[in-house]
Structures are given as C-alpha cells and as structure tokens.
Design a protein that fits this description.
The complex is a heterodimer. Chain A is of the alpha/beta class. Chain A is about 25% helix and about 30% strand. Chain A is globular and about 45 Å long. The N and C termini of chain A lie close together (about 10 Å). By secondary structure, chain B is α/β, with parallel strands linked by helices. Chain B has one domain: Aldolase class I (TIM Barrel). Classes of the chains: A alpha/beta, B alpha/beta.
Chain lengths: ~200, ~260
C-alpha cells in the first residue's frame, strides 16, 4: 500500500488516478498512523515551499515523514521533491525535510521563460530503480520555477533548460522527481510502476 | 531541450464532441473520453476540452467527462468554456484538470485571473484570448464566440493577463480560425513579443507545414488544432514526424 500524503497542497488525485490505472494499491492520507502503516510514500505538492513546509508542520507530519523515509521508499513529486532537500530560497530561506543534502534555488533561465513548463528530455547520470526500462530520449512534463542544487551522486537524471537541472534525485530509499510522472504519459507511468515495485519487494 | 507542444482541442457540448467552422454551423461527432484516449495514443502533449455548453446540466456533464478522462489519460488536461468563478476553477481542477482557461469572464472581471492564480497557482491559469483585426489592422479582443467586440486591444490585454498572474496564453485568431490557411503569424508574433509566458497558437492550421511555420516564424510554445485532428485529416504523430524532419524539438511518445 502506497500512502499519498495529503497535507493540503496540490494535485493528489492525478497521482491517485495514475496509481489506480496501474493497479497499485494506494490511499490518500494525512493521518500519521496510516503513514506509518504504508509500505511506501508519495509526497506530492504544488505551490510555494514555505507554505508547504508550514502545512506539513501544522499537521504534525514533518517528523513522521523524516522517520518513515529511513524505513521505506519515499517519492517526492515536483514541490514534494524540493521539500526533500535541506533548505529553499523561495521567498525566504526555509528549512526543508533534509532527507537529501542540497538546497532549492531559483532557475537562472538566461532569458528563457520562467516557469520551466512543458516536456523536456531526461539525461541519465546515475541509473536507479526508477529509470529501469526507460526508453531512449524520454520526455517528461515539468512545471517549476525553482530547482534543486545537489551533488552529482544524488542525481539520477537531469534535464537542460538554460542550465542543467536535477530532474530525478535519489539517495537511499528517498526519490524525488522534479517533473510530474503522473502527467508524463507512458514514460511517467513506467517510472511510477518502478517505484511501486520497490515498495512491494 | 524543451519540446514544442501539439495540443488537440475537443469542443464539447452536452458531453459530446462537436466541431464548428468559424464558430457557427456546429457538427456533432464522438465521445470526448474516447477521443482524448486516442489523442494520447497518438502522442498529444496536452489535451484541451472546450465546453461550449451554456447550461448548468451541461457543466456537470463536462465535470464527468474530465473525471473519466483523467482516469485514462496521463498528460496535462486543460479545460475551458464558461468558467466564471474561482469555484468553477476548483470544481474542474478537482475533477482532474491541470489547467483551466478563462476567456470572456476574465475580460469582464480581470480579478478572476489574479484570484485563481493566487489560490491555485499561475501554472493552472490559462488566459484564452480570441482576437480579430479591425479595419486599421489593430487586434481587438472579441468574446462570445467572436460575436462581440470588446474594443480592448488584444496585445495590451495579453500583457495584462500575464501581470494578473496567468501562466499561459491560448491565443486564437478569429480571422484565420476555420480558414485552414495557416496560423495567424502576425498576431502570434505580436503577442509573443509582449509577454514572457508561454503562448499557444490557435486557429487556421490546415496542413503539416502550418505547424512548422508557426514554430519557425513566431515564438509560440505550442500549437492547438481541433477539426484537423478530429476529422483525422492529420494525426498528432504525423505532425510531430514533420516537425522532427524540420528540426523542431518535439516529444517522442513513450512506448
């Protein structure tokens, strides 16, 4: 059972729809006990970093996520991925979950449109469980204005938008997708399926 | 490299897909959910539903269509038509849409864009602008399917939409729509020059070359078409194959 963490931020139902479509058992929950019981966790998120941390805090979920991330696979999506890092500079410096070393900064853009929105290709740096059976030239769907800054060893795939942007990060059992696998067609569904397989083994 | 997007649009009335030519003489064809699944299979980068029902019952039907589509199609879904309030946004987003487009309601009440962007984020607010040239060649915003000229300058309005918080502009030329002579390059270029958010060009494509043309000659990020795809004159696959040959970056559909 994968628990999709509901803390008041964003598009939970697209993630749920994708898991349902794949036949992966899941539940949407903001309950600490259910989060502890789940075999794997997905942390979605749309919006701003400080608000999201605030909402996690208010619901008393920050500690339980930090703790459970050591015991079972966790996948952060979009803002949920950014929350995995130590801190962010969106609006103001805010502490994150600190599960992956690194920080979140504004995309440089170099005259490009911000947000980085649309389909961009993934380039594999360090293959991981989620990149298994990935086709050549995989395109995935991004919508974000901030990006992670972390050591190469934590980066599984990156994309290029004016600069190299970590797209899929990985450390231990913690995974983070800057893009939306639930909106990335077959490529994204396969990655979610890979994640679900990690959870069930 | 960021891919140029190809977006098939489905005009939906009372839960059925229809396609009008120049917004009159609407013809009925097909189930929207099935059509969306087919477009996804062909490699559509996003799917757009335009609800042309005016009634309350029709709106409910549309919510069902979105809900069912979102269970089978895993690319972004944009829904527009008759969106008038923040509550309408909420309902459509909850049903599974990723973006909501607003047209005449935003002209009447620009604050709607600002409110929706603040509550749901700019990324899901699409400002749909229908524009037509006046006799001097200035672009005006028209509403109600082109029946009413608001007198607003379309280029200024596009800029204003961005300032209000719109994340994207869906730009339809009422001069080229349905004519199949190509996208309105002049209008598209003019709007792209004034805004820094993505612009979706719409109205007028009739053949493959029109797609490469709009990407080569304007700053458009995406191109939208309805009848061309709907009547199967072209598939999304064919359009992308053509763009690839012209060295325009497009997404390959995952296998």
């Amino acid at each position: 059972m994968i628990g999709i963490i509901d803390y008041g931020a964003g598009n939970l139902f697209s993630v749920k729809n994708a898991l349902d479509y794949l036949g992966v058992e899941n539940c949407v929950t903001g309950d600490r006990e259910e989060i502890e019981k789940a075999d794997g966790l997905i942390l979605p998120g749309v919006g701003a970093f400080p608000d999201a941390m605030d909402m996690l805090e208010k619901r008393g979920l920050t500690e339980v996520i930090r703790r459970e991330a050591l015991k079972k696979p966790l996948l952060g999506i979009c803002l949920g991925m950014q929350l995995l890092f130590e801190k962010s500079f969106e609006f103001k410096e805010t502490e994150g979950l600190g599960l992956i070393p690194g920080q979140v900064v504004r995309i440089d853009g170099k005259g490009l449109k911000i947000p980085h929105m649309g389909w961009n290709d993934l380039r594999v740096l360090n293959p991981c469980a989620m990149t298994e059976n990935m086709e050549k030239e995989p395109y995935v769907y991004f919508v974000h204005s901030f990006r992670a800054e972390t050591e190469d060893e934590n980066i599984s795939c990156y994309t290029v938008y004016g600069e190299e942007i970590p797209a899929l990060v990985h450390r231990g059992m913690v995974y983070g997708a800057q893009f939306h696998p639930e909106k990335s067609g077959k490529t994204g569904l396969r990655m979610l399926e890979n994640f679900a397989r990690l959870v069930s083994v | 490299m960021l891919a140029k997007r190809i977006i098939p649009c489905l005009d939906v009335r009372d839960g059925k897909v229809v396609k009008g030519v120049n917004f009159v003489g609407i013809k009925e064809v097909g189930d929207p959910v099935e059509c969306a699944i087919e477009y996804d299979r062909q490699g559509a980068d996003e799917i757009c539903f335009l609800d042309i029902t005016a009634t309350h019952e029709g709106r409910k039907t549309m919510t069902d269509v979105v809900r069912k589509t979102a269970q089978h199609v895993f690319v972004p879904l944009t829904v527009g038509g008759g969106i008038g309030t923040v509550e309408d946004f909420r309902e459509i987003l909850r049903a599974g849409a990723d973006k909501v487009s607003v047209n005449s309601a935003a002209v009447k009440n620009p604050q709607l864009i600002a409110d929706a962007a603040r509550i749901f984020g700019s990324q899901c607010v699409v400002a749909a602008i229908d524009a037509r040239r006046d006799e001097k060649g200035n672009f005006h915003v028209v509403v109600h399917g082109g029946r009413k000229d608001t007198g607003l300058d379309a280029l200024e309005w596009a800029k204003r939409c961005q300032e209000l918080g719109a994340g994207e502009i869906l730009l339809t030329s009422m001069d080229t729509d349905g004519c199949r002579d190509g996208f309105d390059l002049e209008l598209t270029r003019a709007v792209c020059d004034r805004v820094s958010i993505p612009v979706i060009a719409s109205g007028g494509c009739g053949k493959l070359e029109h797609f490469s043309e709009v990407f080569e000659k304007t700053g458009a990020d995406a191109a939208l078409a309805a009848s061309l795809f709907h009547f199967r004159e072209l598939t999304v696959e064919q359009v992308k194959e053509h763009l690839r040959e012209e060295n325009i970056p497009v997404r390959r559909n995952g296998k």
